[in-house]
Amino acid sequence: MERQLASVGSVASFDRVACDISDRAQVKRAIDQTTPDIVINAAAYTQVDKAETEPDICHLSNVVGPMNIAIEAAQSNAALIHFSTDYVFDGRQSTPYSETDKPNPQNEYGRSKLAGELAIGEAGASHIILRIGWLYSDDPASFLSRMVDQFKNKQEVSVVDDQRGVPISANLVAEMMQRLLQKCDNNPATFFGTKGGLYHLGCHGEASWFEFAAEILRLMKIGKFQIKTKSLKAIPSDAYPSAVKRPQHSKLNVDKWRGVFELEPMQWQDDLSRIMKNYNPATPD
Prior knowledge:
- It is a single chain.
- The strands form four sheets. The chain has a four-stranded parallel sheet with strand order 1-2-3-8. Strands 4-7 form a two-stranded parallel sheet.
- The chain has helices spanning about 1-5, 25-35, 50, 55-75, 110-125, 145-155, 170-180, 190-195, 210-220, 255-260, 270-275; strands spanning about 40, 80-85, 125-130, 135, 155-160, 165, 170, 195-200, 205-210, 230-235.
- It has one domain (about 1-275): Rossmann fold, CATH 3.40.50.
- By secondary structure, the chain is α/β, with parallel strands linked by helices.
- It contains eleven helices and ten strands.
């Protein structure tokens, strides 16, 4: 994201070593040193399964951290962009979730992210909260990377087919942030004052995890990746043991984002195709 945002203005980024967001003093020091117009919080605890067994650690990153950033941003008259999740919903709704639908998180991760949203609202900072679902990247822990690895090394791969959402790449999210900030016209106070609030961001379309995996496999074949998989099998969620309850249907309605910011998302297949064309360029397979 830093690379895309550099075209909009100067960017100062901090990793966890440089700024632990659960420590308010460190957050204050970072903001005081850089005097930003806008703070983007991309930090989060995202290990959905582990959150059930270490809720305190999850809470520090997803609730205390955003609260600290929002408080310090408010005190320095900076605006805040924060990322949340589709996991604030229970997944029982058959139609896409809008910003006005009532949250009902079913796991510790979702509860922590919802609490983080509320903490930001109470802190008084001008803000935009963006809920995003099914985010992927080339990070080794990402669904995309795990599928590519399995397709390269396993003859049979099984993927859940009864959970539905909309994949979106981290690269596209960064591009959307770039275009969003370009609309500030060097006046973030007015922009966030009139357009701030809660938004859903995602691609067009819809898929199951199985359909997402099938599209990855199709693009790998087009890209002439080394592939070992002969069979891709669809399975129900109950065939994949997990202590965590996940939303069965978590597609987000992005009409508010499109209407307010006049920014049009891509089809998720087109987004994935762009990512796969540049995936692992050092080893073209």
